[in-house]
Structure prediction request, 79 residues.
Amino acid sequence: MHLEIITPDKKVFSGEVESINLPGAEGSFGILNNHAPIIATLKKGTVKVTDSKKTVENFEINGGVVEVLNNNVIVLAEA
Prediction:
């Protein structure tokens, strides 16, 4: 699935990933390939991104919104 993490200043990440763990406002949750469509608010925390080579990248955010639709994930984050 394709992930973009965007802040008001710049695009922080763009690429193909295997899984994403997000700090949801109502609790942490994960997204895998073929996830159902969802829009959710995010709280301050760490976005954990795992690619197909099992490489993990962490991004700190201060909140935001995530949209999942047709294997495209967009995180609009407050940096």
Observations:
- DSSP finds no helices and seven strands in the chain.
